[in-house]
Amino acid sequence: MNSFSDFKARASVYVFRYKLRLAFVVGTLGWIVLLKVFVLFYSPLMRALLLSSFAVLFLGFSVAFSQLIASPIAFSLNTYLYDKKHKPEETELPELQDISKTMGVTYTKKIRLTDNPDVMSAYTYMPTKQITFPRSWKEKYTFEQLISIATHEVGHLTTKKRAYLDMVGVILGVAFVTLGLSYFLPAIFAQIGGLAAFYLLLSVALRSAEYRADEASTKVLGPEHLIEVLEDFDKDPKFSGGSESHPSPKARIRRLRKLFPASRWAEDSS
Hints:
Layout: H1 2-42, H2 44-50, H3 53-85, E1 89-91, H4 94-102, E2 111-114, E3 123-125, E4 130-134, H5 137-140, H6 143-158, H7 160-182, H8 187-221, H9 224-234, H10 237-240, H11 249-259
Parallel strand pairs: 2-4
Antiparallel strand pairs: 1-2, 3-4
Helix pairs in contact: 1-2, 1-3, 1-8, 3-7, 3-8, 4-6, 6-8, 6-9, 7-8, 8-11, 9-11
């Protein structure tokens, strides 16, 4: 019975996690097909341009860029509409301001607490540098654990330039994979290959960003409390397997123990 419940919980998470991206993939492919149909019937010159390497390269860029901006926009719209109906609570973590200064930034905002069911973990909205937690975490975790989570989120702010460079790399990678495949495959299949490359490269970039934020946090606070939170995540089917954007809790714990061997948590896990 428990296994079935775990399966249902994991399935519901997967449906939410990937439904937007699936919709954008289908939409992007549909856009490509419609564009081709239009141009092929428009004129022989336009047809030649569309089938050229330049056009395929352009489409590779457009696929990657549309995918990069679509999911954040959809998530932001979802949270904005929810927050208009259900105003989030705000709570202060005064210590976070001093901690953030040692990390090279100054975080002065309050932490927002939301009941939005689509917000299953902490996140930082980069344009406003606003950190948001699920409201249930206020009771679930200790103050020290909450600070470690918040510091991880500040870690994203301190490494955002590297994250932006990674996104540029993703776009370039997709474009050139699409272009390369177009020399051997019909253009539509080259673009499908570009989409596959997009998800692979984006996953690598996002997971790397999580590792960097973990490291930035633990350099200031040590790994103990963050590892406690990750161990709790590992017990939850929603988080235990990781995702396209987050390594599994076990992988993150192993890395922290390697980075901080002097910690009491550095002993091998059972």
